[in-house]
Amino acid sequence: MAVVEIYDTTLRDGSQGEGISFSAEDKVKIALKLDKMGFHYVEGGWPGSNPKDMAFFQRIKNHRLSHARIAAFGSTRKPGIPVQEDGNIQCILAAGVSVAAIFGKSWDLHVTRALGTTLEENLAMIEESVGYLKSRGLMVIYDAEHFFDGFKANAEYALATLRAAVRGGADRLVLCDTNGGSLPEEITAIVGRVKEEIPVVLGIHCHNDGELAVANTLAAVRAGVTHVQGTINGYGERCGNANLCSVIPNLTLKYGHETIPRSSLARLTDLSRYVSELANLHPNPHQPFVGASAFAHKGGVHVSAILKDTRTYEHIDPALVGNQRRVLVSELSGLSNLFYKLKELNFNLDASREETRRFLEEIKELEHQGYMFEGAEGSFELLLRRAYDNYREPFKLESLRVIIELKENSPVYSEAIIKLTVGGQVVHTAAEGNGPVNALDNALRKALEVFYPDIRRMQLTDYKVRVLDEKDGTAAVVRVLIETGDGERSWGTVGVSTNIIEASWQALVDSIAYGLLKNNGR
Amino acid sequence: MAVVEIYDTTLRDGSQGEGISFSAEDKVKIALKLDKMGFHYVEGGWPGSNPKDMAFFQRIKNHRLSHARIAAFGSTRKPGIPVQEDGNIQCILAAGVSVAAIFGKSWDLHVTRALGTTLEENLAMIEESVGYLKSRGLMVIYDAEHFFDGFKANAEYALATLRAAVRGGADRLVLCDTNGGSLPEEITAIVGRVKEEIPVVLGIHCHNDGELAVANTLAAVRAGVTHVQGTINGYGERCGNANLCSVIPNLTLKYGHETIPRSSLARLTDLSRYVSELANLHPNPHQPFVGASAFAHKGGVHVSAILKDTRTYEHIDPALVGNQRRVLVSELSGLSNLFYKLKELNFNLDASREETRRFLEEIKELEHQGYMFEGAEGSFELLLRRAYDNYREPFKLESLRVIIELKENSPVYSEAIIKLTVGGQVVHTAAEGNGPVNALDNALRKALEVFYPDIRRMQLTDYKVRVLDEKDGTAAVVRVLIETGDGERSWGTVGVSTNIIEASWQALVDSIAYGLLKNNGR
């Protein structure tokens, strides 16, 4: 039973995964979520490597965090130059964070072959880089890249690199299985050796190339490591990093260690889906602990046993990680989530009332069609107010038409024509746009601005499309998620249709309706 | 270094995974493939549970297998009846196989709560069921369900169930972590205890609920087990079974055990994709060893190191498991990624030539606009061939128009009108669709099918949209990624525009052009 620090690198190592690309704004959202859940460190990016990461560090400064410390990533200085002249190290300082994570070489092969320098110079690079950042007042986490492979090739040299970091004043030494090919018993033995030799807090950073990243991380903790690095959903280069959505519940529930608070653990499933939504990746239904199928039971033997005693086919209570038992014959999922959300909005519904039952069925039916309200609080609240609150729509659609034309050697042309009823008046107007959704957006704003001047402050900030049943190709149902902001807050809305324009329209209408609702409420 | 028997249960436990359903013919195909690759056992199904499984056992008899033995699955007899009157046991005999795999209860909780019988009767059920099948000449593999949980709750009783199976004459005793929640060190300790007490060959059967199925399987082998059960790609109920695509290469390449022949190991990636194709599931690109991203390098630092020595960022040679190194062309990467990619496509470009410089600048400019070639190898290769290969486009767009109409109380209507030049002829046609992209897709296929009948086999399998500069709202640049398959291979293409229809059109055009290019190349 120890306190194990959780260090999330979804925003840096995770974003090196194929097909993953977060915007600076996505990164800020994820960092805030991780902070709220009590993660100890959030590695925001590599400020020296691209302008997007630097933008993240600028933006995150505008937020007050309550738990997490933001870390900036980088490497030890280049061979043969003074540390204060190294651009990459300067970028870490420019990021303006209190924690630096820098990686250096542990494996002699890498020093001589990849870096093309001497073993001695590498030790100096480590000691001076750590020392310089320490002298500038930062906490320094030293990532010993390829530590296990390096140790197997030349244990003495690998240990010497750690000692160099200790001399520089490193606060944490993180042993990395960079190529992800180590076996648990190797991790156990090598961490044990390091622990005997080195007096600094040790960390672990595993990759999943042998499908052993979680096991290797747990083995390291058993051997005395108290700082764990990984990513949400195991995103990361090649086969990914150690999956924190499995590492955290294993450490907390199976080993009894203290990681993130229990109340946050109960929102782990939400977190996993939130991050996959922002990454625009399908959640893996079979993902341990947090997957939609992780506690799904098929009919027959399993179900009847589960009804007698859930321990018969469940290794933990799914509620501990915010997941749910699903019995595949009945679609009872989602109710407790739903009630949780209703309470959040101060709707204390009586579950026994007829209208509540009807509302629940509507939600179930919409989710069955492909709506997802997790990333669309705006649409969800509108649905609720439409059902209960005598909510009046700010306008009503009569008809819309969108025309897109593309000709050789001329720019593409998009036009939207809409006819609405607003406050008893019919408005019939048209607008062009950069693309059909923009044309629609422009036409809608043009029609409504006279009636609702607040609309001018609302801006669409993200637009995501997800194909739901891929087997149907271009005829598949698509879900559109729109994020809108007014400079103060932001909200998500959703639309679903086989027609991307119709789905976009639904989300667009909700986006404006919700914005107006909140403005009136102030 | 031992011989470890590989027992595949993809067709039985794997098909209990949510969303997986094999036809009897699919099952035969997979069994033949596994046989050819030297798997020792193939569990074909549970003949007592459904007619499809019985059909498999009938059909597989028409084939001569060269390595694998086919096993039929079932349970011990029901409480309180003579074994020869148990319908489930009779079905195993009716399957006409030489190997029976029967599961029985090890956990006292299950015996009394789920089964509702006495601990003594359960022992009799095990011994008599095993004994009866042995007396009918079958090899009997006894699956001790919930063995680890049972052992933790009541070690003496769990061992007594194994002894009952031994008295019945069981040839293998397979210890099952049915709920998938055990930890590697528990597996090590409990297998060690069993090994001391029981003189029969031991097996292991793990589930992945703690993301530890592969580690637990390896731990069991280290503790003396020589029979390993699992599924291809880790398919299976809830979070799946131990993934044989990771277990086999770990046992063979890391531990030096004998499993399937080395020549078969080099076809493991093919096997994984073949099974996912028949299961109609997307292959997981990040799957260890066999995933498309498992040896994909994105970071510029990684790529330049890989070019010097592949060991720097690869834990094994990808060719050993039939996989390939891939270098992703992306914003994070430098020129070294691009040169690697060109070499892969047999374009040996001279970096000093003017056209190469121009090509590189074009790529850089396109990436700056928002193109992403790491998920769009089809578009990348077309770009290259357009620049160097005197590539001729299969058709040329004259004009296109898309109209979408939405009226109160009537379904949305989408129509695409296109005018193309194909082989000197002008084709002017139109089509409706479920949404504008589907309408475009339909119109394009309609126009081209006469000229290129191969198009009929191409199917769009995924469609992703990403807004690139979110601050511009609906006027932002969007990137469309399309994945297309023809049943044998699949390829990605990309389009970028402020207009989602135009971006989709670009990706659609490349998708068909690339498919035709590859078909002509055969």
UniProtKB/TrEMBL annotation, chains A, B:
Reactions catalysed according to its record: pyruvate + acetyl-CoA + H2O = (3R)-citramalate + CoA + H(+)
Domain Pyruvate carboxyltransferase: 4-266
Molecular function per GO: 2-isopropylmalate synthase activity
Annotated metabolic or biological route of this protein: Amino-acid biosynthesis; L-isoleucine biosynthesis; 2-oxobutanoate from pyruvate: step 1/3
EC number: 2.3.3.21
Keyword Amino-acid biosynthesis: yes
Keyword Zinc-finger: no
Any Pfam family matching the protein: LeuA_dimer
Source superkingdom: Bacteria
PROSITE patterns per the UniProt record, alphabetical: AIPM_HOMOCIT_SYNTH_1, PYR_CT
InterPro entries: 2-isopropylmalate_synth_dimer, AIPM/Hcit_synth_CS, Aldolase_TIM, Citramal_synthase, LeuA/HCS_post-cat, LeuA_allosteric_dom_sf, PYR_CT
Record keywords, A-Z: Acyltransferase, Amino-acid biosynthesis, Branched-chain amino acid biosynthesis, Isoleucine biosynthesis, Transferase
EC category name: transferase
Record-stated family: Belongs to the alpha-IPM synthase/homocitrate synthase family.
NCBIfam families noted in UniProt: citramal_synth (TIGR00977)
Full protein name: Citramalate synthase
Native species: Desulfofundulus luciae
Taxonomic lineage: Bacteria, Bacillati, Bacillota, Clostridia, Eubacteriales
